[in-house]
Automatic annotation (TrEMBL), chain A:
Record CDD domains: REC_OmpR_PmrA-like (cd17624), trans_reg_C (cd00383)
GO biological process: regulation of DNA-templated transcription
UniProt cross-references to SMART domains, sorted A to Z: REC, Trans_reg_C
Entry coiled-coil feature ranges: none
Protein name (record): DNA-binding response regulator, OmpR family, contains REC and winged-helix (WHTH) domain
Keywords: DNA-binding, Phosphoprotein, Transcription, Transcription regulation, Two-component regulatory system
GO molecular function terms attached to this record: phosphorelay response regulator activity; transcription cis-regulatory region binding
SUPFAM superfamilies: CheY-like
Highest taxon of the lineage: Bacteria
Modified residues (4-aspartylphosphate): D51
Organism whose genome encodes this protein: Chitinophaga rupis
InterPro entries to which the protein is assigned, alphabetical: CheY-like_superfamily (IPR011006), OmpR/PhoB-type_DNA-bd (IPR001867), Sig_transdc_resp-reg_receiver (IPR001789), WalR-like (IPR039420), WH-like_DNA-bd_sf (IPR036388)
Residue ranges of every copy of the Response regulatory domain listed in the record: 2-116
One GO CC term on file: protein-DNA complex
UniProtKB/TrEMBL annotation, chain B:
GO cellular component, one term: plasma membrane
Domain Histidine kinase: 226-432
Top-level enzyme category: transferase
Catalytic activity: ATP + protein L-histidine = ADP + protein N-phospho-L-histidine
Keywords: Kinase, Membrane, Phosphoprotein, Transferase, Transmembrane, Transmembrane helix
CDD domains, A to Z: HisKA (cd00082)
Protein's name in the database: histidine kinase
Domain of life: Bacteria
Pfam families named in the record: HATPase_c, HisKA
Gene3D superfamilies: 1.10.287.130, Histidine kinase-like ATPase, C-terminal domain (3.30.565.10)
TM stretches of this protein: 12-30, 138-159
Length: 224, 434
């Protein structure tokens, strides 16, 4: 899978590409508007991460250009602007998702995973993970062909872990994933334990191997 | 509170009343003096005429006596009587009952007694003349005075009104404009041209003052906005770096703890930053759009989310939500407002507490128990979190207030029966201007 990171902050580019490489993505990057236009027009990517404020131009114009040329790459806008209007107009022009800075890397990875899956596996969108099988369209999970009864949140969490295979996910990232901005107002993340405990129990009871590991003091990891 | 022109009017009226009141005795004395003077003169003429005419006649004593007796019977008001000796003239006033028209009561008389010789004998003649009684004079003057006073009063009020309408109009215009001025609207105020020097100076300086205010406010807003924007990318770098750090091996529990703590603090900074941006955006009226928001279903959804958070803090949520409550507003803002309200109440609830959420067609009220009344004056100000040991950005209530302001809703805080209660009135009565 090929990802293009269009972002002028080199440190952020480094973090993103390092993290995504562990998920077996190949990353390229563009630091300026000119570089970005050049790369976007010349190559095809599975997903493009697009910052809107770039030296030399507005990222939104790249999006418009892509649309004009009917380029089908998936696009996730990553912007400091975070304005609701930007979000709406970005999605209208043809971006697949919008993530406002600052974000957690696992959150970004989950969004990329979802965009890539949606684009590449349109109709038969099924993830096979040994005995575990997830149907993204029907939003169901089965273990050895037996369906699990997961709540919406548990299913969401399961997908989140799988899209961050072999990476440690902090409790903070999970809290922000589950409750958005509210996470910043909470003094404890106890409610996450409840959801994860339930998910783990359901997986174990159905005979799934213990992929979901608790990393003491750090968070959780889907190890495979 | 007194109005400027009413104050001067009142002073004028008081002064006019005093002057007119003093004029009543003065007029009386003057009128009475003239009366007396005129009647004295009249009495003297009558007396002198009778005297001289009598002296001109050559009558025998017997004849004279008969004539005088007849005279006295016919004209008792000019009575002639023999006198033992010559005396100087005397004048006085006397109150006496009129014996011919008794119903008239006491009458005042001006009297002249003068002595003269006829046939080598002395006689006195008493000339009396009815003079207006003093109380009648006073009454008449008072009536006229009061009449004039009321005419003057009416005149004053009329003139005052006309002055206020014409002369002071520019002043009142300026006053009205200042009253309507709202810094948040960022609309400069232009005063009407006036050719009165004082008003002109006032208007020019007010314009300067307001322009400076708007400018300062604008700068402050832009600063907040820019600072918040500029912070987003460094925050993103720190956050992603921490996420990477977490992937390194081996990581001791202590190191993990440090990362976790840093993440939490970072989340809070990010949220504060986001909220500051949000406040600036609301100020800039960047949330346009007046959709119809179904507050009932929005609240139901949010309560579901908060129940999830509520269980681990062990408190109950009791709700009474009227169905299909529709309000006009920007959906994003309404959502932010209700989230902040709910978050605020949950954050400040102790374990085992109950939170009441009540939505009626015009009002949303959220109540939870508490021990101490919060400081209302600081409550809706930015960063005025009343309890330091509770997490939060210190911006939640400021955001609620700002959103309510945009739509003309009214937020109130009450502390009753050991409960905090926040209420948003979506349909407040028209604001009263004082």
């Amino acid at each position: 899978m090929k990802i293009l990171i269009i972002e002028d902050e080199i440190q952020l580019v480094q973090s993103i590409s390092e993290y995504l490489q562990t998920e077996n993505y190949t990353c390229e990057y563009a630091l300026t508007y000119r570089q970005a236009v050049h790369k976007v027009l010349k190559h095809n990517y599975d997903c493009i991460l697009l910052d809107l404020m770039l030296p030399g131009g507005d990222g939104m114009q790249i999006l418009e250009e892509m649309k004009r040329l009917k380029k089908m790459d998936g696009v996730i806008i990553i912007s400091a602007r975070g304005a609701f209007e930007d979000k709406i107009s970005g999605l209208q022009i043809g971006a697949d998702d919008y993530l406002s800075k600052p974000f957690h890397l696992p959150e970004l990875a989950a969004r990329i995973y979802s965009v890539v899956r949606r684009r590449n596996f349109g109709n038969s969108n099924i993830i096979d993970e040994n005995e575990l099988q997830i149907n993204l369209l029907a939003k169901t999970a089965t273990i050895n062909n037996v369906e699990l009864s997961l709540t919406k949140k548990e299913f969401d969490l399961l997908l989140y872990f799988i899209s961050n295979r072999n990476c440690v996910i902090s409790k903070n990232a999970l809290a922000e994933h589950l409750s958005g901005d509210i996470a910043g107002m909470l003094d404890n993340y106890d409610y996450i334990y409840a959801h994860i405990k339930n998910l783990k129990k359901k997986l174990n009871d159905a005979g799934c191997r213990n992929y979901l590991k608790t990393i003491y003091g750090s968070g959780y990891k889907w190890e495979i | 509170m007194n109005k400027l022109l009413d104050l001067t009017l009142r002073k004028f009226i008081r002064y006019a009343a005093l002057v007119l009141l003093c004029s009543i005795p003065a007029y009386y004395l003057l009128v009475d003096l003239i009366w007396q003077h005129e009647l004295k003169e009249h009495n003297r003429i009558v007396g002198e005429t009778v005297k001289q005419n009598l002296q001109k006649l050559t009558l025998s004593d017997q004849d004279l006596h008969e004539k005088i007796s007849l005279w006295n019977q016919l004209r008792p008001e000019t009575k002639i009587t023999p006198a033992d000796q010559y005396r100087p003239d005397s004048t006085y006033t006397i109150y006496r009952r009129n014996k011919y028209i008794p119903a008239k009561g006491l009458d005042r008389f001006q009297v002249l007694v003068t002595y003269f010789p006829v046939n080598r004998k002395y006689y006195s003649i008493t000339v009396e003349n009815n003079i207006e009684e003093s109380y009648e004079t006073v009454l008449g003057i008072a009536v006229v005075t009061f009449l004039f006073f009321f005419i003057m009063l009416g005149g004053f009020i009329l003139i005052n009104r006309r002055i206020s309408r014409r002369l002071w109009q520019p002043f009142y215009n300026s006053l009205e404009k200042i009253r309507k001025f709202d810094l948040h609207q960022q609309q400069p105020v232009f005063f009407e041209a006036t050719n009165i020097a004082e008003f002109y100076t006032l208007n020019v300086n007010l314009e300067k003052l307001i322009a400076a205010n708007i400018d300062t406010y604008q700068q402050q807003k832009e600063f907040t906005e820019n600072a918040s924007h500029e912070l987003q990318t460094p925050l993103a770098i720190v956050k992603s770096r921490l996420d990477m750090l977490l992937q390194s091996h081996p990581l001791t529990p202590e190191q993990s703890k440090i990362i976790d703590d840093t993440h939490r603090a970072l989340s809070k900074v990010a949220l504060i930053n986001k909220n500051l941006l949000l406040l600036a955006k609301i100020d800039n009226r960047q949330f346009s759009g007046n959709e119809t928001v179904n507050l009932s279903s929005l609240l139901q959804d949010q309560i579901l989310l908060f129940r999830d958070l509520a269980t681990d803090k062990h408190f109950r949520i009791k709700q009474k939500i009227a169905p299909e409550v529709l309000i006009a507003g920007n959906i994003t803002l309404v959502e932010i407002m209700t989230t902040n309200l709910l978050m605020n109440v949950i954050k400040h609830s102790k374990n085992g507490a109950t939170v009441y959420i009540e939505l009626s067609p015009h009002q949303l009220q959220i109540t939870n128990s508490g021990t101490v009344r919060l400081r209302e004056t600081r409550l809706f100000k930015r960063f005025s979190s009343t309890s330091p040991n509770v997490p939060g950005t210190g911006l939640g209530l400021a955001i609620i207030q700002k959103i309510s302001d945009q739509y003309g809703w009214i937020v109130t805080y009450k502390f009753e029966n050991n409960s905090h209660s926040f209420c948003i009135d979506f349909n407040p009565p028209a604001l009263k201007h004082t």
